[in-house]
Structure formats: C-alpha cells, structure tokens
Amino acid sequence: MEGRPGTKDLWGKFRDEARGGPAWHPLSDHAIDVAGTLAALLAQPTLRRRLAHAGGLSALHEGQVARLCHLAFLHDLGKCSRGFRAKAVPGLGPPCGHLAALRPLWQEEGPELAAFLGAIDAEQINAWAGEGAVSLLLAVFAHHGRTPDLCYKQGEHAFLHRAWTAGGREPLRRLKELAEEGRRLFPEAFCKDVPPLPDTPAFQHLFAGLLMLADWLGSDDGPERFPYSRPGDPPRAAFVRARAPDVLRAVGLEAARPPGPLLRFEAQFPFPPRAAQEAMDRLALPGEEGSLVLLESETGSGKTEAALRWASRLMEAGLVDGCFFAVPLRSAAVQLHRRMQDWLDATFGAAAQEALLAVPGYYLMGKAEGQRLPEFRVQWSDAETSDRRGSRWAAEHPKRYAAAGFAVGTIDQALLGALQVKHAHLRAACLVRHLLVIDEVHASDAYMTALTGRLLALFRACGGHVLLMSATLGADSRARLLDGALRPPPLAACRDLPYPRITASHAAPVDLAGEGTAKPVELAPLPAMGSPALVAERAAAAVSAGARVVVLHNTVAAAIATQEALEAVLGPDHPALFRVENVPTLHHGRFAAEDRRLLDAAVEDRFGRNGPPGPAVIVATQTLEQSLDIDADLMITDLCPVDVLLQRIGRLHRHTRCRPAGYGTARCLVLVPEDGDLAPRLQRPRDGIGRERAYENVPAVEATRRLVGTGAVWRLPADNRRLVEEGTHPDSLEAIAKKAGPAWERYAAEQFGRGMQTRAQGINVAIDYGRPFAELAWPGAAEHIATRLGAADLLLPLDPPMRSPFGGELTHLKIPHWMLPRGLDAADAALQVEEGGELRLGERRYRYDRLGLRHDRDAAA
Questions:
Q1: What are the residue boundaries of the Helicase ATP-binding domain, all occurrences included (predicted)?
Q2: What is the CATH classification number for the domain harbouring 344?
C-alpha cells in the first residue's frame, strides 16, 4: 500500500522514505505470508518427517499442520497494539516494539489477560496442545530468534498497558478480528477429529526453528518473494499458496535427489574406492528412526569421500535433503569446499547445486565469489548471478548457512545450532534436514564435546542423520558422544577395540582391521622445545636434503620465533621458504581475513596434491594439523597430546610421490624440553602446555612424551587405537600421575575438576532440547557465548585502512580476547593505524606485518 497507514490500519511492515517509501503492508497479509511459508516448509517431506518424529508420531495429520499454521498466523499479534502502530502513525501514543507490547497481556492476572486469552481463543489452543500450549505460544513469540522478555513492571510499563486499553480496548478487538481471520484461513485446525499436537520438547523446539525460518523468508518483500500488497491484488492467501513453494525452491530449501540410480564410486571420484569407502557402501541403510554413525580411520584413508558416498546413499533413499560438512579448521573448510563441489558436479551433472563455503567473510558459493555491499547485500562475481540469486540466499548471512543444500564450514557453524544464542533454533531446524558430518572429532576439548552432545540429542529426537569421523577418537569422548556415558570402559577393553572401524546406531559394527595400507612413521625426541635456532637448523638441513618440511608449534609466539630463525639460516630469498605473493611468511590464525584466504590458497598450492616438486618448508600452528590434504616428508612438532600428534603426523607421506634420499619412511621430530621434564609446567605454563593453555592436561602431554620415548616406530593405522587409549584414557592418565608423585596427583585431580567444570560450562550454555521450550532461559549475554571456550575475540575496524603485507587493503582485524585492554568499550573501539605497521588500541600497542599480529605478551604464551 502506498503512503502511510491510517490510524485505524493494522500494518505488518512499513517502508519509510529513506528506503523508497512511504509504503506499508497490512498485518493480516504479512501474517498470511509467514503462515503460508510455514505450510510450504511442512509440505517438504524431510522436514515434515523430522517434526513428526520429534513429536513421537509416525506422520503429521493435515489438521495438525493447519493448527501450527494458525499459530504462525498469530506470530505478530503484538502489532495490534497502538504502541506498535504509532511507529508509523504519529499521534497514537508512545511507540513500542511488537514484542514489548505483549508484556501487559502476559500478566498472571487482570482483565487484559482475560481479554487477550479470549481474543486468541486460548481455551481452544489449550485443547490442541495441553501442557505444551504455553511452550508453543512462546515459540511463536520467539520468531525473531529468541524468546522475548515478557516481564511486566507496573509503573515502568504503564504506557504499554494503555496502548491496549485505548479507544475502549480497540486494539484488543482488532486482535480478535485478526485471530478470527486465521480461523477462516485454516478451518481444518478447528475440526474435532484432529489429533492433539504433541507436547514433546523436541517438537516445540523444532517448530520454533521452522517458524523463525518462515518469518525470515516471509518478511522478504523482494519482487520475487512477498512484495507489499496493492489495491486490486488477488486474494493474498491464494497468492502465497502459489508463491511460497517457488520461494523455497529458489533459495535451495528442497530435497536434492540424484538424477538416477546411485553412480559407481569411480563416476563420483577420480580414483577407485579404498577400504573405508567400500565399507560405507556395505553399511546397511537406516530407517525412519535416524542414524548416528562413527567412522574411525587413519588420516589420509579417504574419510571425506566415504562421507560424501554415505550422503549419496542417504539422498538416493530420500532420507536427507543434502549435506553439511563441519571441520575443525577454516583452512580445511576452504580446501574441502572445492572437493564437495567436484562431487556435486559429478553426481548431479548440469543440475548440480552450488556448494557453500560456510565461513564468515568468504562469500563463496560454487565457483562464484561475492563482495559485501551496504545493507547486507552481496555482489556476486559470475555471469549467472541473476539466475542463481535466490539459491545464494543462504550464503549472504551466517545465520542462514545451514539453509544451504550443501555446505562446508567450521564446526562452530554447526554448534551455533546448540548454543543459547539468537536464531540457534533456525540453524538447527535447517541442519536436521541434512546429513551432518562432523570431521576430526577427538578427545582434547571437553567444552565442544558437550556442545556436540546437545546437538546430537536433537538429531536423535527428530530422526536425523549424523556421521562422526575421526582418526584419533579416545574412548572417553566416544562414550560421551555415542552413549552419553560419563566414563568409558576400562583401558584394556578400549585398547583392544578393533581399528579402523565403523560403528552405527542402526547396524552391527563394521571392522576394517587389516584392510588399510600400513604406514611406518619414525619418531624421535628433539630436546629443543623453546630453542627456535635449533629447530631452524634441523629444518634447514632437511631442506638441503631436498625434503618438504612442516614445522608445527603450539603457540604463535614460538612459530614466529622459528620463522625468523629459519630465515636467518636459509636467507630470506631462499626458494624453499613458504611465500604468499612472493613474501616469506608462516601460517597461523592471527592474520586478517583477506590475508588468511591468500595463506590458505598458498599452502595448498605448495604442499597440496598438485604442488610442485622440490624442497619446501612452512612454519605453522594448529591451523595446519587437521583435515588438510597436504603432504610432507618431515614434521618437526611441539610435544602435545597423542591424539593431536597423530593428527599432525597425518600430514606426512599423505600422497604417493618420489621422496628424497633418507625420507623414504615418514619422519617426525617431537620437540621436548631440554631436560625432558614437564613437571615445571604443572606450576608455570609454557610452550602452550599447562593451565589455561592449548593443552592444559599436562599428564596427557607426559603420556605422549613416554610413548615417543627415546625413539619409536609407529605403524599406522595398526597402532592408532593403542596409542590413543594409552595417551588419553582416564585409567592411563591416573596411573601416570600416581607414579610421577604427589604434585602430579594434585594436578591430575585439579585437571579432572577443571574438565568437569568445562563440560558443565558447555552444558550450561547449550540448549537442552529435552526440556520444554517454555523453560529455555536465555543468558543476559547470550550473544557473547562462544562455540570454543574463551573465544571472545573482537573484530575491530582499522582507522585508517592499512595496506596488507601481501598487497590489497585491510579494513578490519580480529584481536584475540587475551590481547584486549581491560575495560574496553567494544562498541566504539577501533585500531589506530600508525607508521610501519604499528597499531594502537587505547594504551596497548600491536604490530601487523607479514608475520601476522604480534604483541609483547606473546612471549608469555
């Protein structure tokens, strides 16, 4: 409608002059848009099955769907208040938001509550849902991403009360009219033979997520979505019934089905299947009850292709709509994204969807790159933009990533569906349509394991499908993720469990022992931890012998020190040094987003499958230790827990190629303290080991030191299970602490307590999908909850923008939380750029150059 709404008009959306108005969209029409979009979502077979399963039903009755749509129609009922209408119509009183307007109606007593309940026919809604009615109503009011604050304070909120009682309670009469229109649009909801709506918590939570998604889509007033109504338009309900399915199809919210029978493995991938991949083809398909599958296999064994093969089978069977692949590191996601797109192209041909790189700041969909424009718009680089604009909807906002048909992202993006943060339910509702693949699950992070467990609980409740993959999953984490057990079986039983193996919730285990190719790895301790010059000398000697070398440190400070020492030994112009845009550098997480893209691409170009021959050396931190398909002859690594060390070793001899003399067998030098004693780190953390460091479980690090001994040959995968259990199992760590003495026993006891506390922190900030929606308590600082404990980093603008050491312009830089000044007002903070790459934030000074972000506190890390 053109112009401004009148004093008696109920409007749902308003566009002011600054956005091309004035224009407005009637409230009832907007309510139809959202309810009709929800109806279209529930017409999708997979989502409908998930919601039914969450409610303990074999299928949803059409009348039950109509009831949910009627509730969705009422989602913006607070817009009947004169306080909300005053936002576009001056003179109606003090303005307020439509959710704040609900506060006086949500009182425990008073005539307004009675009038409100009568207007929406609450007695009927109670009859539909019983004890779950309040949870369903709160789920309706949470359509903006979280439950609103409905606390009413008599004096402070008196104007909200007047906004409903003005004009002889005219707003309440209008609310009743709105609800009656919903009854006319969804008459099936009020038939007597309709079964009650389920009152299970999972049903309530999933409905909340679907309604958030419907509201987001139904609020898009683009010309191909749900434009504002105009005089003379056809009936809105008929228009939305026709438009909503097209909108879902356009944004990719439809099932992906292969065009024909399942292709042979060689037709999807450019090599014959290996043991793990063949085993996934032998695994029985699950039924409607869903599935949780754990694939344990050594690094480099082809777990990625096995996962995509499993996704292919589930899609062909109509059990999932797509695939969300979650990996631990950003660099691994970037690399895997291309492999997923190749798989899609081979599987679907010309009809292939574009795979989304679900990493904030990248805007990569298929082969097209996007650039952020004002007002949350994205300009895409390719000529097909107009044809694919809709399908790239999910790529243009991180909260929508899970709505993509196929996506590769970090585990953080999946776990945001389990945290008490805004739009978590929307993320989760989108995720459960797909096969969720979580790569490199292992035992070192109790916090993230707790979050993962909460997300898996929702998948179990709604019959979803999850594939967990790991080369190094210890029994402790395996017991928690698969069985919810607080302690694993004894060490001996866990150590003897077959490996490699596929464990499935719906089928007997599949053992792969003896089917893989054995890879011997020669390990030797190098007493040079904290001695970058010695590390650089050993790396340089290997380079001189023609080897490709990866040096991995536990801290950025140690990595930078080694890089500088290496350049001093080899010379800054040595061709073997890792470079970006011909600038020697290293790889860690403390680079600007634009530079990280260049670093990730350069790593794959130099050390990937198709990298050039000849010697090369790169210094890095944990950013290169998992999931990446890179290949080296020698690794020099800081001491760390054995599951992490095995991940790092997975970068050795990953590909078949000609090796230099002396490196026909994979070699790993493990940096240990010069005196071989880790006891000082019980009191004083150093080298990333100790309290509040990357590896604070010092007994687990000591277990690795003992497994390496004075030198060892590990045969992988045959030794994987033994090594992981002896290095991470609670029985093993308790025995080490007891033998090492009282100081170790005290530390182990404290570490056990910290582990329990860490898990409790994860549980406390996660959504309990087993509790009614009405009991969900959002923390006051919900937006600052992190998927990785302590990750309260800040992305700050650069003032003025600065030139990247690798070319181009940088406008923002992320500062780790421990580098930030105390008491910083993040809302107004900006990094002041000074000469020579110097940065200033309050009284703190930093440097940003080809070695990344530095600070004098690095030395303490």
A1: 284-491
A2: 3.40.50.300
